[in-house]
Amino acid sequence: MPVVGISIERLGHLLRTPVPQDDLVKALERLGCDIEGFGIMRRFRCVRCGFVLEKTATEADPGYCDNCAADFSADPDLREELDSIDVIRLDLLAVRPDMFDVGGLARTLRAYLGHEPGLALYALAEPRLSVQVMPGLDEEESFRPAIACGVVRNLQFDHDLLKEIMRLQENLHWAMGRDRKRASIGIYDLAGISGQIIYRPVGPDELVFTPLGWESPVTPEQILKTHPKGCLFARLFNGFSRYPLLIDDAGQVLSMPPIINSEETKVTLDTREVFIDVTGPGSTLVNKTLNVMMTSILEIFVGSQGEAVTIRQPDDRCAQSPDLSPQEMTLDLDHARRLLGFHFSDEDAPALLGRMGHDAELIPGSRAAVRMPPYRADFLHERDLMEELAVAYGYDRIPRTMVPTMTVASELEGEGLADRVGRILTGLGFLEAMSLMLGNEEDHFSKFGLEVPAYTVLIANPISREQTLVRTWLLPGLLDILSRNTSRELPQSVFEVGNVTVADPDAETGTKDLKKVAMATIGSTAGFANVRSVMEAVVKELDEPFSVQPCVRPYYLEGRSAAVLGMDGEVRGEFGELHPLVLERFKLAYPIICGELLLPGQGWPPAQLMSAARISQTQ
Amino acid sequence: MSEQLSFPVHQALSLKLLIEKGQEIEIGAVAELLDAPYPQIAGALQSLAKRGLVTLREEVCEEFMLGSKGKALEDGVLPERRVMEALVAKGGRIHMRDLAQTAGLPQKEAGKAIKPLDRMGAATRDGGYLVAVGRLSEGIVPEPGEHEKLLKHLHTHGSGTVDTLSQAGINAEEAMAALSGRSGIVVIKERRRWSVSLTEKGESLRSDDIVARETVNILDRELLKDGAWRTVDFRPYDVQLASKRLVPGKKHPFRRILEDTKRAFLDMGFTEVTSPHVESAFWGFDALFQPQDHPAREMQDTFYVKRPAVARLPDGEIVERVRQTHECGWETGSRGWGSTWSKDKAREIVLRTHTTAGTIRALAANPNPPQKIFIVGTVFRRETVDYKHLPLFHQVDGIVVDEQGSFSSLLGTLDQFYRKMGFSKFEFRPAFFPYTEPSVEVFVWHEEKKDWVEMGGAGVFRDEVTKPVGCDVPVLAWGLGLERLAMFRYGLASIRDIYHSDIEWLREVPLCR
Q1: Is residue A244 part of a domain?
Q2: What is the ipTM of this complex?
Q3: Could you tell me if residue A430 is inside a domain?
């Protein structure tokens, strides 16, 4: 999760009532915020583009501008250091984008602390601007049909506010837009826009415009191929032959969503009015994203004025955007009390919900008609309002009870067996090891002279070469541990009881988990007779009839390995003296005796599980 | 002829010695004469005393020893004597500045001699000179006093008592009087010592009748067979001598955490279940109302499996209900996610990212209350592997399926669990998970870090989760990480220490920690 540094001074200013820092922290934690800590945020301004970069006290000075890529290390004059500010560092709560910025946070806190409970209302001025959506945007070749827009006037920017807005935009792109795929936001200086705005698909070479940070105009196609942001997001236009663009009456391009804005309509310190658009494939999320962006700007800029925009669809349907009317839901208070398990009266409910920024009115039948803010995107179900009640009430005040119903405990059958096998081996002086369930071809097979068996579960997207498959046997893990302990006193005896996984075409998930036990002893006196004694002791204690037969494995010394067979003649396990080749490959300098056994009672493994024997003979 | 009496060897020898000497002897002297360790002789004599054969007598006496200033005297000779000898040698008159050198004394010591000499009437100051008077001026050096004899004696013998000094012809009382006012030359310490003498009964014994018993090292079968052990003594051992290290076979420290976890839930009446490590996306995500475009499902966070490639979806209505719930809420009262749900995505196979896959499977298999279910197991996350992280860890997931289940009883159950695991300071904070509402995160106070550490998440399963699997009552659910408990208990810095164990650590961590 991204972490943001919220200016304590600005937050205090927007709270309008002084709140001690400790109370602030408590309140944020009770709202579910994860506070990383407090600190100083060092600020640098890029002289070339005006972008403000923030670094914590421990981070290095910025070497280049994140916005225009100006190289500060080559030309230190391009980097201007501004005053540091005190910040509270918050882990963003992905589900609450309305709390990503200082304005939204202040709004939530004002309600929660009881200063301004209930719905925050935003009066919008009548639309003066309109956006015409042209046909083609709902077709596959240029699919981005949903658009929502708004205007905010009476703004006064400074470096920090510019930064705050850009940061909010980026974080909304991440949290709501899923990296601009589902929603992308554009903000423009209204002064650079003339007349009405048209949203239409444009051919790759149909026109030219100057992308943000550049000095000369290029075609949309060139932006995708050469501009850093174009390259970064070109995949969002996969399969497109025409690209969605916002253009004004004068032919000035505002942006090519979701890739980039034009240089001419860029927001600067002099901007007094902005036009905002959000586009995406679906209107619900697009509208919600605009609501968050727009109301947060109105919160951050005290005295600013929101204004609606008329959006005209290709079929001439007209609608005003944004829609800041509250969401509505009915809450059954009896149900809520039962589910939450603590008592509050019907009359308490509106106050509790008010602290969470909702308006609630009691209606007959112990119910509440609740009106929720238009910028919240996390209400799918009545249940979501119950959580609002619990948060408002305070998790720390909720009594901690237990269900009164008696139930009888029972342990998993196989677990008891695994535990007993562990006791047999600890009784024989073995130390238990726990190795990873994941491994790789080299350590699990090649080093043993084996090919990767067909029943091995392979990972499609491994994160390192170390872990590319799910283990099918335990011995490799034990050898890994022994090879990490060559400097420790010998002899060393270790065992592991654990799960392995093999492909099983008959199983629902295509795999089957099996419980096995393996043991190994390294030391100068480790010989076949010892491992035979250990294996025999284990099998005897398991109370399983068995027999032992010679077997050939590429990883055991020939003539010093044996298979353990059940009474039905099926191979259940094996043991022997490890081949010196294997010792060399694991960089082990003393003899090892080892064995591995499938725990009984799991049904027989797929026949091919023991195919290692066949592979060995063909080696 | 009288009867032979057998005694352990040290008792026998001590008795024989006492009979031979016929007088009271100090225990130390007995040990010395028998060339045996003092504690063993003392023990032997105590045993004899218990049998009424000897009497032990405690004596308190003063022991004279050189003090720090006395020890500094060369040959135990006082400075005044050296000065007197020097005066005689120089004809009875020495300039003060030459005094030390002439007498062979340190400057400070030479000066200290003047006052006693004056008092003795042997020398006196005359301007810058020290001049012999009286008999000394005639070249006659007085005989050493008692105190000087004492110093000489102590210098040679180290210490002495009134008795031993008197035997050496020294009157201790007089000597100490002469040294009065000069501290640190001779010190007196109070000493206790034990002496032993035969009782009447002891005196009646004849030396020839006393037989020493054999001392043996090992109690062997021969000694046991005919009762011969009764006639021998066993050599005592030095019990403080280091012995060879023995390491019992031990369960892994983390196994103990897993067992404690299981034990805690079994104690609370829970039934243990299991579920596949390699899991279908359906049970891992979809059945838990995790939207198909949720970031956690992306390739960068979850391990997908390429072999085998696809899982089967469960039979019956459940798949269709899950689809409708995702798309429009079905009959759950929810709006749903509003996006199209794909069966193919649900068939994908993943390494399970949470053991909640196991509890939802258990709930689908039996949705009827009341039930308490838990699962402990390995989960996999595609997180960057570094010195601190591994792509897998363990979780305990649990559910309570109960008509009377509530958020309050969820918090109470978690409270009980963490108390059972030995924590007393923990906190519940709001959280968000796609499958629970209300949701809560558990934080435990870390005393060394002085910070709250997140342990896991919990909540009441959403209706979007429970209703499609046929359950209509509240289901309390949680998924808690377990490695951190181990790192707390054993003070580990990294999860790697658990899986790439140092064998020395496995040997040394006490089983009962």
Answers
A1: yes
A2: 0.90
A3: yes
